[in-house]
Design goal:
514 residues; alpha/beta; 11-stranded mixed beta sheet
């Protein structure tokens, strides 16, 4: 069987890729001198640094949008393929932000944002999950998190490519591939791009927007952020509303920010979090929904903490050098005043079957909510009429979801199995923390995803450096439910002591050899 990386570079033959349109953005051009100046500044600029330039009048939101659009046009089209659709009203919105700016607005005012294209917007853009069957689908209104972004003055620049149906399309799918957008490429080279928020991760890594939003069911925020040397949080389930997001399973799905710094992550998380009447799960996190996460950006946050760091035998390392990365992280934690305890990685039992029932039920409910008369079985049957061009990697997972009965008996069985999965994962995390009187657990990338994703617990990933071949690597802090703010603080302290991220050297599409 082909590896994930081999599938990402397999170049399947199909018709129907949708060209990236620049409608409404024809005058989004800047001269070479301006681009060069902004390249130097924006490569690693944080939101506060951008806002400082807005305040002093040396940068506008209009110029910022033009910069990103031109950068996408130069590098992303037929290159990294991280952007699936651009907002034709982005420039108009940017100009309005500039007109409104009077110093009273919040940190996200006038900041361009890219959304994963399973997040609904009630504007001119489509919401497709990358699926040919939803190519012309419009959401009936903005998702709650999109409403939050707009209310804060953020500019929705466009939609990101992804792993089709959030990587629940086929057993043999390629992370980052959709028939509408093609294959997303890693911002750093011919490495695994990570899924399913592949476009969000690559676009952040390549600096095609200030920040992006992805979604995760199990590893789909942590993996692409890590693979593209970026920061993310998979929040406690319910901290960010799942309203009008095309689902896999409601008991694990969440959205989350992907950023180039922990500072930007905290700022953006303040906007995304909130209690939503359309999502009962947000009531579970009401006690932390109004948290100012920027107040937890403390470089001394690890002082006096007890951190569990996973340790594998050499033959258990998913990738050579993982233990060395964790050894180095442990040294930094110790230098910052933490006590480090090495533990075996957490083993968690998990059954994929819960996803089949959850997706069938959730997709049907989403389609009904937006006024689409079809069901998931209808979409699967439509794909079957032309698999080569509608599902070139097959649709085995989608098919199994579609044939899973939505009966009361199956509903009860699903709930029992989900609760069993979640209880096992919760026990593994809490028992480890309790046994060692610890504050957090640390692993590489999304290796412990079944522990924190299945339990609904938070995880924060931050760049840790690069492997010998240049592939990005990150460490991930995770812990108990509602411990999001503390995990943000630990990751920030680590980032400040070990600023590992370096901007990628982007390659023009004509220079690619894939």
């Amino acid at each position: 069987m082909a590896t994930q990386l081999e599938r990402q570079y397999s170049n399947p033959q199909w018709d129907g890729k949708r060209p990236l349109a620049f409608t409404g953005l024809d005058d989004a051009t800047l001269d070479d001198a301006t681009i060069q100046s902004l390249d130097d500044f924006l490569a690693e600029a944080t939101i506060p640094q951008i806002q400082a330039r807005f305040t002093e009048g040396t940068l506008t939101s209009e110029t910022l949008v033009k910069y990103y659009v031109q950068r996408i046009k130069t590098y992303d089209v037929d290159g990294y393929q991280s952007v699936l659709e651009l907002n034709p009203d982005a420039l108009e919105i940017a100009r309005l932000c500039d007109e409104q700016r009077d110093g009273s607005q919040g940190a996200m005012h006038g900041i361009p944002v890219l959304l994963k294209d399973n997040i609904g917007t009630g504007d001119k853009m489509h919401t497709t999950a990358g699926a040919k069957a939803l190519e012309f689908s419009h959401c009936d209104r903005d998702a709650f998190l999109v409403q939050q972004i707009r209310k804060a003055g953020g500019i929705i620049l466009g939609k990101c490519n992804l792993s089709e149906w959030a990587n629940f399309m086929s057993f043999d799918s390629a992370s980052g591939f959709t028939v509408l957008g093609g294959q997303v490429r890693n911002a750093y080279d011919k490495f695994d791009v990570g899924g399913s928020s592949s476009g969000s991760g690559a676009a952040t890594g390549a600096n095609f927007a200030t920040v992006t939003v992805g979604t995760e069911t199990s590893g789909s925020l942590i993996s692409p952020a890590s693979q593209n040397s970026s920061c993310t949080i998979k929040p406690s389930l319910g901290l960010i509303s799942r309203d009008r997001i095309i689902p896999i399973t409601a008991d694990q799905d969440t959205a989350g920010p992907i950023t180039r710094s922990m500072t930007d992550l905290a700022i953006f998380l303040n906007v995304l979090a909130g209690v939503d009447v359309n999502d009962d799960y947000t009531q579970r996190t009401a006690s932390i929904a109004e948290t100012d996460f920027t107040a937890y950006l403390d470089k001394n946050a690890l002082q006096g903490k007890r951190i569990l760091v996973t340790q594998r035998q050499s033959d258990q390392e998913p990738k050579q050098g993982d233990n060395a990365t964790l050894d180095h992280a442990s040294e930094i934690f110790t230098e910052l005043g933490a006590t480090v305890i090495r533990i075996p990685y957490l083993r968690v039992n998990f059954s994929l079957w819960t996803y089949f029932y959850g997706m069938h039920k959730g997709v049907n409910e989403y389609l009904e909510a937006i006024g689409d008369p079809r069901t998931l079985p209808d979409l699967v049957a439509w794909n079957d009429e032309d698999l080569t061009n509608r599902a070139p990697f097959g649709q085995g997972l989608l098919h199994l979801s579609a044939i899973t009965p939505l009966t009361p008996e199956l509903e009860k069985a699903y709930q029992r199995l989900h609760h069993s999965n979640a209880a096992d994962a919760s026990h593994a995390v809490r028992q480890a923390l309790k046994t060692h009187h610890a504050d957090a657990i640390v692993d590489i990338n999304n290796y412990s995803t079944y522990a924190y994703a299945v339990s609904g617990y938070p995880a924060v990933s931050v760049p840790a450096g690069y492997r010998d071949d240049g592939e990005p690597v990150s460490i991930t802090f995770f812990g108990d439910y509602l411990n999001d703010a503390n995990l943000v603080s630990y990751a920030y302290a680590y980032e400040q002591a070990h600023p590992a991220r370096k901007p990628p050297t982007l390659v023009l599409p004509s220079g690619r050899n894939d």
